[in-house]
Amino acid sequence: xxxxxxxxxxxxxxxxxxxxxxxxxxxxxxxxxxxxxxxxxxxxxxxxxxxxxxxxxxxxxxxxxxxxxxxxxxxxxxxxxxxxxxxxxxxxxxxxxxxxxxxxxxxxxxxxxxxxxxxxxxxxxxxxxxxxxxxxxxxxxxxxxxxxxxxxxxxxxxxxxxxxxxxxxxxxxxxxxxxxxxxxxxxxxxxxxxxxxxxxxxxxxxxxxxxxxxxxxxxxxxxxxxxxxxxxxxxxxxxxxxxxxxxxxxxxxxxxxxxxxxxxxxxxxxxxxxxxxxxxxxxxxxxxxxxxxxxxxxxxxxxxxxxxxxxxxxxxxxxxxxxxxxxxxxxxxxxxxxxxxxxxxxxxxxxxxxxxxxxxxxxxxxxxxxxxxxxxxxxxxxxxxxxxxxxxxxxxxxxxxxxxxxxxxxxxxxxxxxxxxxxxxxxxxxxxxxxxxxxxxxxxxxxxxxxxxxxxxxxxxxxxxxxxxxxxxxxxxxxxxxxxxxxxxxxxxxxxxxxxxxxxxxxxxxxxxxxxxxxxxxxxxxxxxxxxxxxxxxxxxxxxxxxxxxxx
Length: 552
Hints:
7-stranded mixed β-sheet; D-Amino Acid Oxidase, Chain A, domain 2; alpha+beta; FAD/NAD(P)-binding domain; 15 helices; globular; 8-stranded mixed β-sheet
């Protein structure tokens, strides 16, 4: 043990520090700079991003509703925003094992229509937003992971610290060790995305989820394909529900035809599923073999892969969005509109409103206090009202696919989201698994290497990489629980709910042991959410690690 004092971290003072260069964080940064120009005053803004570049960790379907973008950057078309593929047609299918049934558009709720929207790569859209922000003077630091929240003596947030670089697996300082930096701010915005590591800490410290329902989640798994030009229909949107999921499991698919013969195809499974033998990844692969889907992929090739958890709870799961010194925005707060299957426009609006709230406070010489009016601003905005109108859709599916679908039509078409009641979600996702002895194992077909693929092969198409000799960022609170509880009672569900082959049970002389292949981690956060004992904690790895999505 060295007696040397730790190297003191460098400090930088900013007006606003934003954690995460996603749609919410970048929209906040742009709005802050626009306000400063309008008011002819200086305001310093910096964004830290754990990905190796902006967009490296961004994954979504994605169909974009441009409402927030129209407000933020009205001349986005002249600025060559990468919204190249307007939606031209759409279809929703219910699948059985071999057949399909189309839902007539007259029976679709207004929120599920996509006319006027755009099929995009959200990663490329964020790269473009980052360029707009930097042109306005925003400082963006990719490859720097915010690993710690900083507080003053009164307990208010005063900024963040980035993680140390070059720490070895045993916790010692390696030959290339570099101390992290402290970024101090008058206000700090946390926009890390769904199940943000620091956001989770803040919710606990400031009791932000008191008096709201527990958040419920899904996992979205996506592949990007280049398909046969004869089968490519730019602007076509396809969603499905039903097979291969059973009536009691929430989920469905998306297939979006982008430009350049590209197809974004993916599958979402609600993490409230009950059968521990279910594998969201394998359900996705199985889905691609359906007679209505497989022909679309034949003759094409998969070019990218990724996965990400998403918030599904909506209005009744929104935490208090403010605390002394900072705000939660975007998916760190849970602003996804699940019935629309969209969250970019609401995340952007939350960031823009956060910017306006903090800017006004700074103009009044305030700092590190509680921006309590942000809650009312967001809930009173069109984004907050949109989430309120959608609030009863997701919880209705706890009654099953058929009942949930019927209720959704009633709630959204006839009641227009104005029902005088608010449905409750189920208990937390991690408590939903039944014991393995009460469930039937699921037999998934072997991948053919053409349409369906094994996990590790697909992970190689996410360009995931971590510095190998660093502390494991997937931490077990109790190392005995994986075998004594998860394996004994649930037959080791970690190996199935992880979409990247991170967790596997290996047989050793003294018995089975959970092996964590952290190098494979695509930062989806599913393990942090679904582990039945809440024994796995995802913490921020060294900056720049993780997936490097080129076009997702």
